[in-house]
Amino acid sequence: MEKKTAILMLEDGTTFHGTAVGKIGTSAGEICFNTGMTGYQEIYTDPSYYGQIIVNTTSHIGNYGTVKTEDESSEVQIRGLVVKNFSNVHSRVTSEGSLQEYLERAGIVGIADIDTRKLVRHIRQKGAMNAIISSDSTDLEQIKEKLEATPSMEGLELSSLVSTKERYFEGDPHAPLKVAVLDIGIKKSILSNLTERGIYCKVFPAKTPFEKMKQWNPDGYFISNGPGDPGVMDYAVETVKEILNEEKPLFGICLGHQLLARAAGISTYKMHHGHRGLNHPVKNLETGLSEITSQNHGFSVSREDIENSDHVVITHVNLNDNTVEGIRLKDKQAFSVQHHPEASPGPHDSRYLFDKFAEMLNNNA
Length: 365
Known about the structure:
Order of helices and strands: EEEHEEEEHEHEHHEEHEHEHEHEEHEEEH
CATH class of the largest domain: Alpha Beta
Radius of gyration: 20 Å
CATH architecture of the largest domain: 3-Layer(aba) Sandwich
Number of helices: 11
Number of domains: 2
Strand content: 25-35%
CATH superfamily of the largest domain: Class I glutamine amidotransferase (GATase) domain
Distance between the termini: 63 Å
Structural class: alpha/beta
């Protein structure tokens, strides 16, 4: 079957011509790249990627098909997909279908057969920007107009769009520990890591008032990962401040880390091109040990603000660029990390952080 032409246009006018994958159509969003060699399905269903176009830097994508149990949420969250070599055949025995079928069902527009190495080098140099993929039009002026109408990721509040609409429970109701989870874009594997440690979770929508969470009388609180700019999430920052006043254990991951920082008076900023992949080296300053981590974020917390703070301590740093990867509060039972310790996909070097949280809950019970 003859391949259909697709066009990728970046905000700065850079244009690539390739072939269409997924749904035929047009889609725009912020473009970013993920350096992970596996786990494409987990990446595409991570709510933190909501509204973004993902570039997979691995040469072959789709070669092991898809399996429903590897979804990290109830739907595909990305806005578009860019790959070098897209595989229409898959060889995994347990696969339930091809990636092409998976993308078509989800309505995801993609482009293949372009030089992703050249594209990634461009993003590294120029920084994160909006882009558009079109496989139903070759009119560059028309494509450019649609791209110019796409809002910037900076200043966007997206967590309320991906959060659960109704409260729900996860885990064993007879488990010894109870944690209230603020869902601002949570991944299923994070909940699995909590429940596997004897924690019964009640998951609350993003804009739930603190009093509603408190009524359940949990042993501690968890603030999840998620998409968008933490700088416009005052509603969640206020919730975190109220949780801190409860004097109960609090753990935050990714966006949850940024919200804990803002609740403690630390500012956040948009990064040049962010961290996304399974191979980011992070040093734990409290143990002196390093770990290889899974990451997905385009915003970070201010090192300068923390160094000028009397009550926030840096616990982890990124060994590539020295950005802050973890904090704890001196006077509270609260800590957070920028990277993803559930590591789905990714190495499991950081899963000890869930053990640390469970230990804090047990000591507080």
